[in-house]
Specification:
Helices cover about 15% and strands about 35% of the residues. It is of the alpha/beta class. Bound molecules: copper (II) ion (CU).
Length: about 110
């Protein structure tokens, strides 16, 4: 009875792989207490960067310098996503814990 189970597992994995859109490039950054992990990333233009809150303290994501400005709400959980369509270097801080809590996103 092992073969049918293996077949079902392979089919499930294949179905999962097909569900991922080919052009949905997403890069995840963790928002911890009190740092961004990773603190420096490089992505291609058009990539969506998704910040995911992992710590317990409130944080936000705020661009201080860069080709485009954006800012998340102050939040303690959940996530914030932004599609980056302009090339350049984005300097980002958590306004609550700046200047120590900062990161850089390079969009090529
Ligand atoms: Cu913070």
């Amino acid at each position: 009875m092992k073969k049918p189970l293996v077949g079902a597992a392979v089919a499930a994995i294949a179905a999962g792989a097909l569900a991922v859109p080919a052009l949905a490039a997403t890069k995840t950054v963790q928002v911890k207490d009190n740092k961004f992990v990773a603190s420096s990333i490089t992505v291609k233009k058009g990539t969506t960067v998704k910040w995911v809150w992992k710590g317990e303290a409130p944080h936000d994501v705020s661009v201080t310098k860069g080709p485009a400005k954006f800012k998340s709400k102050v939040q303690t959980s959940g996530s914030f996503s932004k599609k980056l369509t302009k090339k350049g270097t984005y300097s980002i801080v958590c306004t609550i814990h700046a200047p120590g809590m900062k990161m850089t996103v390079k969009v090529k």
